[in-house]
Design brief:
The protein has one domain (13-99). It has four helices and two strands. It has helices at 3-11, 13-46, 48-51, 61-105; strands spanning 54-56, 59-60.
């Protein structure tokens, strides 16, 4: 890809929007995940009695919270994929169309 094409892509408002939205949304999901996981570890470290509380048989609060963390991570991944398949793909297609339209005129 030549430098002129790269410059057109970087100047495209859709490209700027795509980069900004992906960065912002990615960091938001990352922070949510880190808070959840480090919160779980903090409970294990500072309140092990809470985590060890039995709910039914050998099932403890820790097992339930761990399971919910895994489900939450899957959910957050699904949310990101849904956004990527809709909003981000639309922006990427608009960028490609703009660049190929200009390239055909040259």
């Amino acid at each position: 890809m030549d430098q002129a094409t790269l410059a057109r892509i970087k100047a495209d408002p859709n490209y700027r929007t795509l980069v900004a939205e992906r960065k912002s949304f990615g960091w938001t999901l990352t922070i949510i995940t880190l808070i959840a996981y480090y919160g779980f570890i903090a409970i294990v470290a500072f309140a092990p009695g809470v985590i060890a509380t039995k709910l039914a048989g050998n099932i403890t609060i820790g097992i339930v919270i761990g399971f919910l963390l895994i489900l939450g991570s899957i959910l957050l991944t699904g949310i990101y994929v849904a956004r990527a398949n809709s909003r981000y793909d639309d922006l990427a297609n608009a960028i490609v169309n703009a660049v190929t339209r200009v390239g055909r005129k040259s």
